[in-house]
């Protein structure tokens, strides 16, 4: 069996009892970065074989992992933070496991975009999750398409591209479009700023830009 196990996005208290049990029971743990996962596993007393599974090796590693699963091993996949396969490696392995008739289960748990969306105050009955926009090729095309999107849109963004992304959103969505930007979710310095895109640009031009960001933008009215 293949388990996808969410891990905390910042606060270790968000780890579930079931996630700890599954990791302890697994024969092998696949981690996006073994160095990042080591403190987490140590904290919860989980002593298992851990192999790296990330975007640079997942295509090569899938066949061997499928072989282990077919042999009856229980394997758990974790990412550095949050739910595997959500803007992180996992999709390829899940798809191949399903093709091979292997049981796949994803545990409920931490993911950054859900609290950011709920905190935003924007409509959340319907929304679309975009994750990270393309850095270069296809970026402008995607923004033109999203300019007509009526649902609340959710994006992930890194600190060094945040201001550029706000400026691009202002161009395609309009300066007065309502939005919300959350950072350091579940951590000590958690912060959510809300307002128009123009107001958010002014705020982040005058305040430190640190951490990973979840950007929620209202849809077209």
UniProtKB/TrEMBL annotation:
<keyword id="KW-0963">Cytoplasm</keyword>
<dbReference type="InterPro" id="IPR014777">
    <property type="entry name" value="4pyrrole_Mease_sub1"/>
</dbReference>
<feature type="domain" description="Tetrapyrrole methylase">
    <location>
        <begin position="1"/>
        <end position="200"/>
    </location>
</feature>
<dbReference type="Pfam" id="PF00590">
    <property type="entry name" value="TP_methylase"/>
</dbReference>
<keyword id="KW-0808">Transferase</keyword>
<protein>
    <recommendedName>
        <fullName>Ribosomal RNA small subunit methyltransferase I</fullName>
        <ecNumber>2.1.1.198</ecNumber>
    </recommendedName>
</protein>
<comment type="function">
    <text>Catalyzes the 2'-O-methylation of the ribose of cytidine 1402 (C1402) in 16S rRNA.</text>
</comment>
<dbReference type="GO" id="GO:0005737">
    <property type="term" value="C:cytoplasm"/>
</dbReference>
<dbReference type="InterPro" id="IPR008189">
    <property type="entry name" value="rRNA_ssu_MeTfrase_I"/>
</dbReference>
<dbReference type="GO" id="GO:0070677">
    <property type="term" value="F:rRNA (cytosine-2'-O-)-methyltransferase activity"/>
</dbReference>
<dbReference type="InterPro" id="IPR035996">
    <property type="entry name" value="4pyrrol_Methylase_sf"/>
</dbReference>
<keyword id="KW-0489">Methyltransferase</keyword>
<comment type="similarity">
    <text>Belongs to the methyltransferase superfamily. RsmI family.</text>
</comment>
<keyword id="KW-0949">S-adenosyl-L-methionine</keyword>
<dbReference type="InterPro" id="IPR014776">
    <property type="entry name" value="4pyrrole_Mease_sub2"/>
</dbReference>
<dbReference type="InterPro" id="IPR018063">
    <property type="entry name" value="SAM_MeTrfase_RsmI_CS"/>
</dbReference>
<keyword id="KW-0698">rRNA processing</keyword>
<dbReference type="InterPro" id="IPR000878">
    <property type="entry name" value="4pyrrol_Mease"/>
</dbReference>
């Amino acid at each position: 069996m293949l388990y996808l196990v969410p891990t905390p996005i910042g606060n270790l208290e968000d780890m579930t009892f079931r996630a700890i049990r599954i990791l302890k029971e697994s024969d092998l743990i696949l981690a996006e970065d073994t160095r990042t996962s080591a403190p987490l596993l140590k904290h919860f007393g989980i002593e298992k074989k851990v192999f790296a599974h990330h975007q640079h090796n997942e295509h090569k590693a899938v066949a061997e992992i499928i072989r282990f699963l077919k042999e009856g091993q229980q394997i758990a996949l974790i990412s550095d933070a949050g739910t595997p396969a959500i803007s992180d490696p996992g999709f390829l392995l899940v798809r191949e496991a399903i093709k091979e008739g292997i049981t796949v289960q994803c545990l409920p748990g931490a993911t950054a975009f859900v609290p950011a969306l709920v905190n935003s105050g924007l409509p959340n009955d319907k929304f679309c999750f975009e994750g990270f926009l393309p850095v270069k090729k296809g970026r402008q095309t995607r923004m033109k398409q999203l300019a007509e999107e009526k649902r609340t849109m959710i994006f992930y963004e890194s600190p060094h591209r945040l201001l550029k992304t706000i400026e691009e959103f202002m161009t395609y969505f309009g300066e007065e479009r309502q939005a919300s930007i959350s950072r350091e979710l579940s951590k000590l310095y958690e912060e959510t700023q809300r307002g128009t895109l123009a107001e958010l640009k002014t705020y982040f031009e005058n305040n430190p830009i640190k951490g990973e960001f979840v950007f929620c933008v209202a849809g077209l009215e």
